[in-house]
Amino acid sequence: MLTRSRLGYLNRISRRWYFAVIIASIFSGFVYGASRHGLFACQPANAEGNQFTSYCHASAYGDYDHGAFWFGLEPRAVSNASSADVLFLGNSRMQIGMSTDVVRDWFDNRAVDFFLLGFTHGENQMFAEPLLQKLAPEAGVYIINVDGFFEEELKGPADDVINNPLSRNRYEQKQTWQAVHRNICNRMPAFCRNEVTYIRSMDTGAMQILGNSPDAESAIIRPLLSGDYSIDQEQVEDSLLQARRFLRGLPGSPNCLILTNVPNSDTSAGTALALAEDLDLPIVAPHTEDLATFDGSHLTHESALSWSMAFVELLGPALDQCHSRAARL
Asked: Which of 94, 108, 137, 152 could bond to 145 as cystine, CB 3.0-4.6 Å?
């Protein structure tokens, strides 16, 4: 027969188990939600702390990159972008096309600091212009990817960080999760899923793709015609006015402006060359055979290596010509 004290003991044990089950259920629900919809859906940046997750393809996380720079949440990256000798501007096509060892080694061998300040979501001058005013860069050289850059449309993440007063708090919360995510996932990789992830270097801005990446078996490899020299005159005319206004407003006193056009499916090489001619600016946009994209838009890693190798071979002479011209002015 159970005594009163024994019954009390069993009740206490039951309550503890009850609360333990409740807590375990809540934790399990959190883990499931975080791994399905939050940052834990993605693989982490490296443990050294010289990278951050700029984008995670999860509904409750998504973009971090825009807020990281706009709100100064990643001071090391912001500082390196501001102090770089050469600043690249453009969209994610530029980021992926230029984020190669070829580009890094070319600048390292010349002891020149560079930074890739391109953004996802088809970013353009509508975000770049006010961001540059914030950063006050010291770059003497700007290299601008013309593909969709001189447009007047303020895209989603850019519109959010610039105009939404609540966005800073959300991006600060995303920043907080970065450290937690990095520490847990680097120690227990199986805890994190493998959705598409963009990782940005704080030192050069270079972008690495993890998860369902260009080299994954499920990638859609599509040939890209890089030798399209047809000219979309309407596109050139639409870009000219915006380009001239943007270039006049660049902060500091850059002595060299160079255009480029990472091969893509929207802006032909001919259109880019015509725009450069009308702006009277040099353009480095080499033609390379057998290029491919992994999604119909962004170069595969192999194609990015091939194209960026041709790019840096032409960049040196273009810089020499640009500086020579500046010295005569």
From this structure: 94
